[in-house]
Amino acid sequence: MASRSLLCLYAFVLFSLATADFSAALSPYFYNKVCPKALPTIKRVVEAAVQKEKRMGASLLRLHFHDCFVNGCDASILLDATSTIDSEKNAGANANSARGFNVVDDIKSQVDKVCGRPVVSCADILAVAARDSVVALGGPSWTVQLGRRDSTTASRTDANNNIPSPFMDLPALITRFSNQGLDTKDLVALSGGHVIGFAQCNFFKNRIYNESNIDPAFARARQSTCPPNGGDTKLAPLDPTAARFDTGYFTNLVKRRGLLHSDQALFNGGSTDTLVKTYSTNFGAFSADFAKSMVKMGNIKPLTGKKGQIRVNCRKVN
User: Fold this and answer.
1) Among 141, 176, 297, 315, which residue's Cβ finds the most Cβ atoms within 10 Å?
2) What gap in Å lies between CA 21 and CA 147, rounded to an integer?
3) Cα(199)–Cα(194) distance, rounded to whole angstroms?
4) Domains 38-163 and 170-293 share a fold
5) 86 three-state secondary structure
6) pTM of structure
7) CA angle (310, 312, 313) in 5-degree steps
8) pLDDT of 262-284, one tens digit each?
9) What is the enclosing helix (H) or strand (E) of 144?
10) pLDDT by residue (tens digit) across 85-120?
């Protein structure tokens, strides 16, 4: 009888182990067994894309950022519009500016090929591609937590309400970040992602023509390529060395040469001035804090376990 009871207990334990949700927490080792070639493949495709166009590194980093700020890091930003999906691609912060979707498609195709089936989520691809983009441009690396699953819906309204605006002052920025569980240090460190990439004229036109906390020579230089009327899609670098991950973004802020209103808001007599000054002269401090904040941001409300799905095509629900 005791033997039979022990056998039943053993069977129950095996059943419990088989049905337990071990993927509820993210782990850097999530794909080690199911697809050990996944991360090297993502890195290879990202490096090739950034080598072809340096700006792509900033674009892929931005996709991850804009994804995580809208109901968590779930690849909702990648979904195209349908009769039931109001695509986040059409939100104010993304329309005609978010890019890199073709590179994500390429990564997904290559990863599924080496894995033999769709086991890597689009959300994890965005997280890893962001890290690999930063590294490709000379920035820090960090251990990406993995195991996210993909959403089956998107929200343009939430994207408009949650993604920080380039026209925001410091209190509004702090609130937007705080709503995601991110503190003031995270705000400044993650804003440092603007050390790479460009912005469209319509996002900084008012600043270079109407604001006073701006270096006059810098304003004139930007006005030469961003006219007061028209030219809204003309690009300007967010940092003078936009193809290299360095401290130039913060050095610019100290000199009142922040391109966006929200950039200069970080150094305008407020609570974040000291940290901006520190980062402007200490690449090590900036790199370390940026890496920590990227991990923290990547942990915003991920779908795990049996929630969501692993999309076959990152642009649409299975």
Assistant:
1) 297
2) 12
3) 9
4) no
5) strand
6) 0.90
7) 115
8) 999 999 999 999 999 999 999 99
9) none
10) 999 999 999 999 999 999 999 999 999 999 999 999
| Residue 229: both structure tokens together | 């009327």
Six token digits for residue 180: 């995601």
Task: Check if 64 is active-site.
Answer: no
Q: What is the CATH code of the structural domain delimited by 170-293?
A: 1.10.420.10
User: What's the topology of domain 38-163?
Assistant: Peroxidase; domain 1 (1.10.520)
Q: Say how far apart CA 249 and CA 251 lie, in whole Å.
A: 6
Rounded Cα–Cα distance for residues 248 and 168 (Å): 21
In the chain, where the domains are located: 38-163, 170-293
| Residue 100 CB neighbours (<10 A) | 25
3-state SS class at 96: coil
How far apart, in whole angstroms, are the C-alpha atoms of residue 227 and residue 232?
A: 8
Pick the catalytic residue from 64, 66, 194, 261: 66
Task: Report the C-alpha gap between 318 and 152 in whole angstroms.
Answer: 8
